[in-house]
Amino acid sequence: MKSVNLYIPLLLLLFFAGACGTKKSDGASGALSDDALLDTVQHRTFNYFWDGAEPNSGLARERIHMDGVYPENDQNVVTSGGSGFGIMAVLAGIHRGYVTREEGLARMERIVSFLETADRFHGAYPHWWYGDTGRVKPFGQKDNGGDLVETAFIMQALLAVHQYYAGGNPQEKALAARIDKLWREVDWNFYRQGDQNVLYWHWSPEYGWEMDFPVHGYNECLIMYILAAASPTHGVPAAVYHEGWAQNGAIVSPHKVEGIELHLRYQGTEAGPLFWAQYSFLGLDPNGLKDEYCPDYFGEMRNLTLVNRAYCIRNPKHYKGFGADCWGLTASYSTDGYAAHSPNERDDRGVIAPTAALSSIVYTPEYSLQVMRHLYDMGDKVFGPYGFYDAFSETDNWYPQRYLAIDQGPIAVMIENYRSGLLWKLFMSHPDVQQGLRKLGFQLSSDTPISAS
After folding, report:
1. How far is 54 from 77, CA to CA, in rounded Å?
2. Which helix H or strand E contains 225, and what residues bound it?
3. Could you tell me which of 133, 297, 357, 419 has the fewest CB atoms within 10 Å of its CB?
């Protein structure tokens, strides 16, 4: 009896200690306000592009693997599009005080110096470079030249940087002038392949136009057409947008997915992966934006996000973990390489990419924060030194501690746009951007043509 009396208090002590420990583990995000959680995630993700940058170029490494395993020996390969997203993330980091304005300027000067001497093809950048030399690393055998889509992503960022520094001190103004030169040197017209009214994705000095990829909408490439029209030196005619991107109106295709209305035709699917709602709109502000093909770009991208969420909640393939607090299908690492996951049974592999829901925070703030808290509470299984890891699958017990620049960047940028609209304000204030939007007939929701005022 004496031994039983001794054990009862001990068992009670262990029970309460265990209960307290479980509560703390399951609710780590509960101690953080929304703003503190957002700042924690944004700052960690910013570190991918600051601490994790390739040292010579200052640009974003294509990938960072915490296990140190790089099967293609590409640890120091840098990416143009992902670096564009990262440049915008660094601007946001300067704004947030993660680094000083002086430190940020020094990094931007290093980046621009690299871009001035790195391989270009009729002013357009390749998908990848070797960070130590600036020479192109082929993205594929014939993809060893200019990549106009990735060039648009980095130019979107550089125009925002231009606006950030254009009114600054002499050193900052000098950097803005160097950026303006890079911007003016992109020959968008060349990528029409003989003055066709469409833009081609690739050109190679060795293989020419053999990739043969004319770009039609809707996908992630809207920003490319807007910048091509906006160029003050090599601007394409409006017909390139209307006949190439919109295919004379064929881009309009009202339909419903998961009971939610979509207005545009999505290439190859009824509703695309979520990076289609994000990459063009890191700088381009969708709020109140419309043209003759889409009456409300913000509403369209919000509905595309809601389709993605609704599909994951319905979860027709019965994957573990899918639900209201864990949704988001986009292009990311996958259980078998890399894949563009979309909200349909053909393209759904049970892989959740945090960037999908988190970078949609401008469209679905309440729902995206719900996912952010859930992921944060999952702990270091999914959250590491540079923010949330690229992707995971609870069904396959697959939790690789690996990152991709092109997925990390939109998280930091869209969190900042949600908090302050900083990147939207900078990009949209550039007079060439304003001119390009007017040229293509974009309007605000008030039916007032866009102006630079």
Report:
1. 8
2. helix 222-230
3. 133
Say if CB 351 and CB 336 are below 8 A apart. Answer: no
User: Which structure tokens are listed for 31?
Assistant: 């101690």
Residue-level pLDDT at 28: 83
Q: Which residues pair with 449 in a beta bridge?
A: 443
Residue 26 clears pLDDT 50, i.e. is over it = no
Q: Who's near 317: CB < 8 A, 6+ residues apart?
A: 345, 348, 350
pLDDT in tens, 38-97: 999 999 999 999 999 999 999 999 999 999 999 989 999 999 999 999 999 999 999 999
DSSP-derived pairing of the beta strands 331-334 and 337-340:
antiparallel
Residue 426: CB atoms within 10 Å: 23
First and final CA of the chain: distance in angstroms?
86
Distance, in Å, from the CA atom of 359 to the CA atom of 362, rounded to the nearest integer, reads: 7
Overall pTM surpassing 0.90 (yes/no):
yes
Q: How far apart are CA 377 and CA 417, in angstroms?
A: 24
Within 54-188, strands assigned E span 63-65, 77-79, 128-130, 146-147
Q: Tell me which residue of 115, 114, 131 sits closest to 75, measured CA to CA.
A: 131
Cβ 211 vs Cβ 223: under 8 Å: no
Burial class (CB in 10 A: 0-12, 13-18, 19+), 103: middle
Listed residue (416, 317, 305, 299) closest to 371, CA to CA: 305
Return the pLDDT at 11. Answer: 38
Q: What is the pLDDT of residues 182-240, one digit of tens each?
A: 999 999 999 999 999 999 999 999 999 999 999 999 999 999 999 999 999 999 999 99
Which residues does 114 contact at the CB level (< 8 Å), separation at least 6? 56, 57, 58, 59, 134
The residue among 260, 286, 265, 273 whose CA lies nearest residue 363 is 286
355 to each of 329, 331, 441, how far by Cα in Å? 9, 9, 31
What digits encode the pLDDT tens for the residues 132-147?
999 999 999 999 999 9
Separation between Cα atoms, residue 446 and residue 453, nearest integer Å: 15
Place of tokens 């082929």: 138
Round to whole Å and give the CA distance between 377 and 30.
Answer: 9
Q: Which residues contact 428 (CB under 8 A, 6 or more apart)?
A: 283, 284, 285, 434
Tokens coding 374: 């859930």
Inform me whether the pLDDT recorded for 112 exceeds 60: yes
Distance of CA 224 to the CA centre of its chain: 14
Listed residue (411, 303, 311) closest to 354, CA to CA: 411
Strand, helix or coil for residue 328: coil
